[in-house]
Amino acid sequence: MKKFYLLAFLTLASLSRAQNPEDDIPNFNFDDYFVEPKFSLSVGTRTLNGTKSSFAGQGLVQSSQSISDEVSTDVVRSYHDGVVVRDQRDGATDGKTNTWGYTDARQVLDDGATMSFHTYKADITDSAMRSKDPGMSLGTELVVSRDMGNISKRLQWRLFAGVGINGIESSVRDSVLATITTVTDKYSLDGQTLPPGLPYGAPSSGVDADGNVIETTVYLDRKPDSRTTTTASNNTQVTNFWHLKGTYLTMRLGPTLIYSITDNLRFTVSGGPALVYSGTTYSVEQTLVPDTSDTLVTTVSETEGNNLSGYYVDATMEYLITERAGLYMGAFYQSTGTYVQTITENGSSYTTDVDLSKLQGFRAGLNFKF
Questions:
Q1: Per-residue pLDDT tens digits for 220-237
Q2: 337-343-344 Cα angle (round to 5)
Q3: Count of C-beta atoms within a 10 Å radius of residue 102
Q4: pLDDT given at position 96
Q5: Environment class of 317 (CB within 10 Å of its CB; exposed 0-12, middle 13-18, buried 19+)
Q6: Is the pLDDT of residue 284 over 80?
Q7: CB 98 within 8 A of CB 202
Q8: What does each C-alpha distance from 1 to 12, 14, 194 come to in angstroms?
Q9: CA nearest to 182, candidates 109, 126, 123, 224
Q10: Spatial distance between the Cα atoms of 135 and 338, rounded to a whole number of angstroms
């Protein structure tokens, strides 16, 4: 019996040594595999104040100047308030034309005996500068940063690079001083009566009380009886509307200091160089209100891009919701210089000064660690 027990013990011992090692339960130490995230991504908005703009320059507004001289016949004279065209009758020798028209009742002079036609030109001589603060601009920002290590128990630092986009829009409308030049051509109606209704265009016809078609064409001389040119300076007839609109992209990088107030609340300070690309369209709408007929409007514009450089600082509070996500809110200051944009078109020369040297605002958004 003793030999049986000894044999059973030796058999069990050998079986235990022959057990498959894959059946052993391993002991994992997960602490050896944990890697603390080093990068952060911040996505948010920023409101911006401090952009300034000013407008200045001189321009030209004019109507059609295709009026030839006052003695030529069989030419087309195109005025702001009408037109006198070559006669369309075959073999007519009376020196008149049956093809012309006018638009404004104020063109009829001397109790209906004379027609007047005009061209207008306004040379804007105003030298005053108008300034405007565009106000608050709402934009977006994206910032990537990397943890660089601890300076002390509660103080650490990181490097960041970010990009932000904001819009810019500013406008001013004001009356401007201008010299108005008016050319007036007068034509005699030779006792003819103009038919009612405006605008009037000859040849013309109408219907009598019996329904019969009758000719109502009034004939006009093929050349004016007289021409006069007058000038007057005032700030009541011409209005300018200066308008600047565009977007600027801010790129910035530098170090960030992080102070841990509590496990979840941190205070950060960042600063560094900033680069700005600004793309803007500058336009000026010039409006002349003449003595007769419709308002004259001329618009000149220019689109261009400018590169600026400066610096950027901000102070921000961060609250960690989890180990990898949090909220941030802070204030910033940015100085990135000024630039001048110019319009030179159709006899006009206008400038706008855009000042981005004292920008300030608030930023807020979400942080993610990865």
A1: 999 999 999 999 999 999
A2: 135
A3: 26
A4: 96
A5: middle
A6: yes
A7: yes
A8: 17, 20, 149
A9: 123
A10: 17
Q: Is the peptide bond before 196 cis (omega within 30 degrees of 0)?
A: no
Q: Say if pTM beats, i.e. exceeds, 0.90.
A: no
Cβ neighbours for 25, distance < 8 A, ≥ 6 positions apart? none
Among residues 104, 126, 97, 359, the alpha carbon closest in space to that of 234 is found at 126
Residues 76/79/82/83 CA torsion (nearest 10 deg): 0
Which residue bears the tokens 């209100």?
A: 289
By residue count, the chain amounts to 370
